[in-house]
Amino acid sequence: MGRTLNITLFFACLLLAFIIEVQAQSTSFDVTKYGAKADGSDISEALLSAWKEACNSTTPSTVVVPQGTFSLIQATLTGPCKAPIELRVQGTIKAPEDPSLIKEGEWVNVQYLDQFTLSGGGTFDGQGAKSWGQNDCAKTKVCSKLPNNFSFGFLNNSIVRDVTSLNSKLFHVNVLECNNITFSHFTITAPETSLNTDGIHIGRSNGVNVTDSTIGTGDDCVSIGDGAKQVSVTGVTCGPGHGISVGSLGRFENEQPVVGIFVRNCTLISTQNGVRVKTWPASKTGSATDMHFDDIILQNVSNPIVIDQEYCPWNQCTLDSPSRVKISKVSFNNVKGSSATPLAVKLVCSKSLPCEGVQIGDIDLVYTGTQGNMTSDCANVEPTFMGKQNPPICVKNGTAQSS
């Protein structure tokens, strides 16, 4: 064991030394040298000019947005580049308040890159407050499209660290078709009233890591869509928001399987939900398997533990037909804290495709409200249990049980 640890530390130090050396050799491209000014004028052209020159560099390069407050209408930063590239934002970049000025796509779109880094300690301010009232998802099945703060597409071996996403108009981050991308010490901030401002949405990507980050927003802190594989969410503090969710799944044709979701050592504070898996009823076919929620701390959280295969927001669907998404190999272990509602555990699976391989271990929740005892609601599932369950869960399948 000691020899293995020493070898591991040796290679870790070697990698750190390599990263430091690469950073030291990086060529810098400051956007102010391309005409960007912190005076309210649009820096889109200056940023793109700096990016193109940096992208053509045969040695590692860094595009720098220095201290100050800059305005950016829209940016699409595209590769492939000839060497590793970093966008280092030290100041604040503000989006236009009017979403119609962002003509197509997202506000900041980064795509087709290998070894990309976003860093610098700066803030991307989506200025979404005036847009949230335009969100009509509660009225129509097809929501009006507002721009996300970030779209990361087709990135490999990349990292986003030490930056803040503030007040996005819609999702803060959309991750699509990425492999081996990490979000570390990433801060997301928006009020609870900001509709559909998911923190990090992950779809059709493999090897996504969200670690040591703080997310407070008006929807899911982390939402995991179809095709997500080997996703790790560790050391995340969530709140306000709707919790950490797999799904919703099954709404669209040809959704890809979800495989390998690991949520560990996370804290959720005053969120609408804790950790959950959700699929639409009357859904398209799909599957979600190998999902594990371990060492979760909840503080005043409504709906702490959820599998909901009758997810139907704003009554835009029917419960006549069951979900056709198969859920299997799910575990909830060492989940502790306080529930804001008496219904602490909801495991409602599809009657046509009952959940399989659900494991419950060491659940210890308290409810301090006045609406009665804590309960669980279970249907079409037969979990296996380990350790303590407070409240008692699924004592008899299909009935709510009181503590």
TrEMBL record:
<keyword id="KW-0961">Cell wall biogenesis/degradation</keyword>
<protein>
    <recommendedName>
        <fullName>Polygalacturonase</fullName>
    </recommendedName>
</protein>
<dbReference type="InterPro" id="IPR012334">
    <property type="entry name" value="Pectin_lyas_fold"/>
</dbReference>
<dbReference type="Pfam" id="PF00295">
    <property type="entry name" value="Glyco_hydro_28"/>
</dbReference>
<dbReference type="InterPro" id="IPR000743">
    <property type="entry name" value="Glyco_hydro_28"/>
</dbReference>
<dbReference type="GO" id="GO:0004553">
    <property type="term" value="F:hydrolase activity, hydrolyzing O-glycosyl compounds"/>
</dbReference>
<keyword id="KW-0732">Signal</keyword>
<feature type="signal peptide">
    <location>
        <begin position="1"/>
        <end position="24"/>
    </location>
</feature>
<keyword id="KW-0134">Cell wall</keyword>
<keyword id="KW-0964">Secreted</keyword>
<keyword id="KW-0378">Hydrolase</keyword>
<dbReference type="InterPro" id="IPR011050">
    <property type="entry name" value="Pectin_lyase_fold/virulence"/>
</dbReference>
<feature type="active site">
    <location>
        <position position="242"/>
    </location>
</feature>
<comment type="similarity">
    <text>Belongs to the glycosyl hydrolase 28 family.</text>
</comment>
<dbReference type="GO" id="GO:0071555">
    <property type="term" value="P:cell wall organization"/>
</dbReference>
<dbReference type="InterPro" id="IPR006626">
    <property type="entry name" value="PbH1"/>
</dbReference>
<keyword id="KW-0326">Glycosidase</keyword>
